[in-house]
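call fold(seq) -> tokens
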Amino acid sequence: ITVTKAEVTPDLKRAKIYISILGDDVTQKKTLRGLENAKGFIQTKVGSCLQIRYTPLLTFCLDE
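ret:
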């Protein structure tokens, strides 16, 4: 998985994360599902690294 881009709203409450995944469509869908399932864990890790009041709500998208 490679993060290719991240777009954050001006209020820092939402972040759209664009990712690139090697493999076929099935692999990409499984990987996206895994990221969605781990979203809470990832947000917690991001929140512990950031020095801001709210942790952005993450949304993962394939970068076409």
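The radius of gyration is 12 Å.
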